[in-house]
Amino acid sequence: MTMAAEEVTGRRRGHPLLQGRRRERYTHGLHPAQMDALRAMCGALIPSLLPVVDRLHGGADDDHDGRGDQQMAGASKDDLERFYLASAAGGTIPHEVAELVTRCVWEAVVLVKIVLWILTTKVGTFALCGRLCVTSKFPYVCKFADMPVERREEVLKRWNRARWPLKITFVVIKILCHYAFYTMVNENSEKPCWKAIGYNIPELDEPRGGGTTEARPSSPRPLDAGVVETRGLNDTTLLRSLEDKGVAVTTQQDDTWSAHHHTVRCDAVIVGSGCGGGVAAAVLSAAGHKVIVVEKGDYFTAADYTSIEGPSMDRLYEKGGIFCSTNVTTALFAGTTVGGGSAVNWSASIRTPETVTREWAVEHGLPVFASPEYARAMDAVCARLAVTDGCREEGFQNKIIRRGCEALGLKADAVPRNSSEAHFCGSCHLGCPTGDKRGTDTTWLADSVSRGVVILTGCKAERVVLESCKPGRNGRRKKCVGLLATCSGDGGITKKLIRIEAKVSIAACGALMTPPLLRNSGLKNRHIGRNLHLHPVSMAWGYFPPENKLMIAGKCYEGGIITSMHRVTDRTIVETPALGPGCFASLVPWESGRDMKDRMRRYARTAHAFALVRDRGAGQVDGEGRVRYTPSKDDVHELRDGLRRTLRILVAAGATEVGTHRSDGLRLRCNGSELLSTRLLAQKLTPMVLRWWRHTYLGSGVRGCTLGRMSVRSGVPT
Ligand SMILES: Cc1cc2nc3c(=O)[nH]c(=O)nc-3n(C[C@H](O)[C@H](O)[C@H](O)COP(=O)(O)OP(=O)(O)OC[C@H]3O[C@@H](n4cnc5c(N)ncnc54)[C@H](O)[C@@H]3O)c2cc1C
Questions:
Q1: Residue nearest ligand 1's atom 46 by CA
Q2: Which residues have a Cβ under 8 Å from the Cβ of 363 and sit 6 or more positions away?
Q3: Which among 575, 697, 588 is positioned nearest to 636, based on CA atoms?
Q4: Cα–Cα distances in Å, from 712 out to 192, 507, 717?
Q5: Which stretches of sequence are listed as region Disordered (predicted)?
Q6: Is 513's C-beta closer than 6 angstroms to any atom of ligand 1?
Q7: 559 CB contacts (<8 Å, ≥6 apart)?
Q8: Domains annotated on the chain, with CATH
Q9: Residue 110, Cβ density class (10 Å: 0-12 exposed, 13-18 middle, ≥19 buried)
């Protein structure tokens, strides 16, 4: 970024784009009457509640000792009172929710708009809410926005139990409302309710950018020698910047079609700077080729990252982190910044197991994966990323996995990471603020720019350019001669397209974005976008009260994200996620406004762990932001078994309450070991992993999809 990042000074640190400035205007287009209905929904989901004074003093917590929660959070009575009194109906939160709704799949947007519209009328409210909107005063029926908050809450509870379409409306608004409420920060990049839930932005013990020589804030940024940041550049300044980097540009001055482009020539153009694109740029440039990388995201470094969940998700993730399958059951995550997924992933750097490489070679006819070359390539990647499985100190959630496994006599393995042994950062998923995690942005791309590679950021490849040619030996009549890209996205002011002509064009935009690029280019192969494999994930949680002295110390968001794992089967593992307050609140079940606030108050001491499955079933990418995905029956079985094992591990580690993300909030109070070996536990846990349609999955690690006849896998071993 051209704007200099601030050093760690007080609260306002990092890059302005990652600090969470107020939006200047809203573009959601909802009518004021629809906004009233939405505000009323937000107010019922997160209502203003009179704090139960006894609870704040630890006397009347219906499930646990509230005093412990308060001490753990370091929150004063005032903090807790303010938290319970805060409502999502206030301020700009409903507008933020409306804005987030527009990022969902269009079917969900239309559905939500229609439901809100119906709720603006009395008849419509009666149709959707029934007798709950009937009053004793003339005209005896009121609109949703005029209903008392308790009745609105009752309506939402019913919708939560309903099926399509009210269930979907409920799920969308519930997720987005909680996400907006817990991630929106004030002008000091703070959120008053964080104190009450025991959260604060982790202070940095490790120096910013201190982990790698490449990322020291005082030195030039690792990619400065090659990066051209197109945000804010106009056509003239863009040309000048490209020429400064040694790229010759031609622009036609007549009125032919080519006058609408700046034309640039190179040996190879690569779309995407993630795991695949970054390594390809380094390898090709090392072989002496002139390479240009086109990346639609922005360039940030360790000194820029703020670890503030809302703005960081917004800038670093595809669709600002609000990306789900078209059936709204699976949340998808993909990085979109320089470094791609490697800049935000959870650092687990597991070599492709031999069983998998053999399967690719034998069953999919790709012998290269079983060859020594592939093993050598893996060695080279691990060496450059300095992958280590040492970890000096584990965080709260990983300690729990380890303790639970030990208690059950199960094996917990160390997980290799691309960061140092001392790395204790829980916010690598929002860009590692210490600079210790080695993504492509600090390694392979840094090597590339030192060899003359140019990286265009804020530059989106729209289509590859195909030209007719004489049919060759392979019978193809068209060849790819480069691509067309725009720099006029968010903040860009260039008017012309960039045409990059190259002998070789590489699409490395990840499994979700590569198929749309190929289809937009006119390619018709019916296999494009098919066989999408995700790593479906289903989560369980366990609450560990802080007052028990034998209990593991720490908070759920502290420490390396994945340092321990348990292997359930060849296809299923148990690991731990990174969940900031926003993601946590959107995922955990909502039973009522008060219950949700009680759950959030226990945020810091609620550990999550997930079962992750190497899926047999497959989904399909239909277009940009349109992904069809439903786990197959076999995968659901694996997920259930994995989830059951995850719950047992949490119980064995000493959780006093466990649950899944089943939307009705079913949970089990437990007392550690007494339940471990009994059938009772199995009986009690089983309902939590059943009734599958009520669960939400995460597809966090996109594994690959078909791009024609060959199935490609992501650059990072999965
Ligand atoms: C939150 C999260 C956690 C993860 N944790 C792990 C982990 O612990 N271990 C692990 O092995 N894997 C993990 N993964 C998965 C891993 O990061 C991905 O498999 C890997 O990044 C895929 O590499 P890629 O090169 O295919 O695509 P990406 O790394 O996603 O890179 C694609 C790049 O292309 C850019 N792009 C897309 N379309 C265009 C376009 N039209 N024009 C220009 N640029 C474009 C994107 O902005 C992006 O930067 C995680 C992923 C996520 C999202």
A1: 336
A2: none
A3: 697
A4: 46, 11, 12
A5: 1-23, 206-226
A6: yes
A7: 393, 394, 395, 396, 397, 398, 424, 425, 426
A8: 16-197 (no CATH), 233-299+439-520 (3.50.50.60), 330-435+537-699 (no CATH)
A9: exposed
Closest residue CA from atom 47 of ligand 1? 336
Tell me how far apart the alpha carbons of residues 625 and 326 are, in angstroms, rounded to a whole number: 9
CA distance 208 to 215: 8
Number of other residues whose CB lies within 10 A of the CB of residue 57: 14
Average pLDDT of adjacent 10-residue blocks, the chain of 718 residues = 42 81 87 98 96 53 45 74 94 95 95 97 96 92 97 96 89 96 86 91 63 52 94 88 90 67 94 97 97 97 95 95 88 94 95 92 93 95 95 96 95 97 94 96 97 96 91 78 86 80 96 95 92 90 82 92 96 96 94 96 96 92 93 90 93 92 86 56 60 49 48 32
Tell me the sheet residues that pair with 317.
Answer: 335
Nearest atom of ligand 1 to the alpha carbon of 338: 49
> What is the reported pLDDT for 154?
97
At residue 236, φ and ψ (nearest 5 deg) are -70, -50
Task: Specify the residue with its C-alpha closest to ligand 1, atom 4.
Answer: 345
Strand partners, 455: 227, 293
Provide the pLDDT for residue 675.
55
State the number of CA atoms in the 13 A half-sphere of 215 facing the CB.
29
- pTM for the model stands at 0.91
> Is 506 annotated to bind ligand?
no
Residue 209, ligand 1, Cβ within 6 A: no
* CA of 277, closest atom in ligand 1: 25
Ligand 1 atom nearest to 508, measured from its CA:
25
319 to 297, 463, 621: CA distances (angstroms): 11, 20, 15
**268 assigned ligand-binding residue:** yes
What SS3 state is found at 640? helix
- What burial class does residue 471 get, using C-beta atoms within 10 Å of its C-beta: 0-12 exposed, 13-18 middle, 19+ buried? exposed
Alpha-carbon distance values, 352 to 334, 421, 546, 718 (Å): 20, 22, 38, 6
Ligand 1 atom closest to the Cα of residue 294 is 43
CA–CA distance, 121 with 174 (Å, rounded to integer): 22
Beta bridge partners of 294: 271, 456
Cα 377 to ligand 1 centre (Å):
19
Please identify, by atom number, the ligand 1 atom nearest to the C-alpha of residue 337: 49
Q: Which of 141, 229, 123, 161 lies closest to 492, judged by CA?
A: 229
Q: Which two tokens stand for residue 450?
A: 């030192």
**53 belongs to an annotated ligand binding site:** no
Q: Given the structure tokens 């190497």, which residue do they identify?
A: 614
Task: Please give the Cα distance from 650 to 688 (Å, whole number).
Answer: 14
How far is the centre of ligand 1, averaged over its atoms, from the C-alpha of 516 (Å)? 15
**668 within ligand 1 shell (Cβ under 6 A):** no
**Nearest-CA residue for atom 1 of ligand 1:** 345
pLDDT value, residue 222: 93
275 is in an annotated binding site: yes
DSSP per residue, 207-270 = PTT-SSGGG-TTSPPTTTTTEEE-TT--HHHHHHHHHHTT--EEE--SSSGGGGEEEEEEEEEE
Maximal C-alpha separation, the chain:
83
